[in-house]
Amino acid sequence: DAGVTQSPTHLIKTRGQHVTLRCSPISGHKSVSWYQQVLGQGPQFIFQYYEKEERGRGNFPDRFSARQFPNYSSELNVNALLLGDSALYLCASSFDNVAPLHFGNGTRLTVT
Amino acid sequence: AQSVTQPDIHITVSEGASLELRCNYSYGATPYLFWYVQSPGQGLQLLLKYFSGDTLVQGIKGFEAEFKRSQSSFNLRKPSVHWSDAAEYFCAVGATMNYGGSQGNLIFGKGTKLSVKP
Q1: Contact B106 A100 (CB under 8 A)
Q2: What separation in angstroms does the CA of B59 have from each of A30, A102, B13, B91?
Q3: Residue A43: strand pairing partners
Q4: Do B41 and A48 touch (CB under 8 A)?
């Protein structure tokens, strides 16, 4: 079975633009979590969705939003990009409403 | 508030030597505990997890970790390090099951970078 897949792998955007990152969980997994990893730091929790409902939100501004689709894939949207949004964005999935056990390879976002 | 401390930013060991990576956590109850490994440019791979039961947990790639409640620690060990173990290691703590809460919220430490000398 395929693991957690994220697209795109790399992305370069300009300040003020909007970006959409995509995640496909492992087949059968219903929970998707998003994390931001700034260079040199551990990942920081952004959102969790389970059964298409938001189950948790980290300490991020309203510029960050997400959703989960009927097939359990997910999108993370970031509006009005700032230089500080440059990071590796990780998606993780789990079968149930439990801790994320399987991570994708991430999307590297660079904001210039 | 929950927190995770990995006191060692960078550790270098010789190939074949033993390894211990330290992790201390702050949490009001017995948490769920995890160790992940990240190779450069890659995502995180779960090495092992502790939810309950035996405090010595076996993981993949020959790693093990021991939960010590009295010390609020969850140190990762490997008896003999291989060159392929060079990577960054993250300890994480998660909330224990509570109805309606977010189980997706893990608190990560800042990581320990492991270098392996030939």
Answers
A1: yes
A2: 24, 15, 20, 14
A3: none
A4: no
Each residue's pLDDT tens digit, B2-26: 889 999 999 999 999 999 999 999 8
A34-81 residue pLDDT tens: 999 999 899 999 999 999 999 889 999 999 999 999 999 999 999 999
Q: Report d(CA A35, CA A59) in Å as an integer.
A: 11
Half-sphere exposure of B90 (CA within 13 A, CB side): 22
A60 lies within 8 A of chain B by CB: no
Contact status, residue A31 vs residue A50, Cβ threshold 8 Å? yes
Which residues, other chains included, contact B99 with Cβ-Cβ below 8 Å and sequence gap of 6+?
none
| B98: Cβ contacts below 8 Å, ≥ 6 apart | none
List C-alpha distances in Å: A104 to A34, A108, B24, B39: 10, 12, 26, 12
pLDDT digits (tens, 9 = 90+) for B82-118: 999 999 999 999 866 544 456 678 899 999 999 999 9
Return the SS3 of B32. strand
A55 and B103 within 8 Å at the Cβ level: the answer is: yes
> If you search the block for the tokens 């993981």, which residue do you land on?
B59
The SS3 assignment for B118 reads: coil
Say if B28 is an interface residue toward chain A (CB within 8 Å).
no
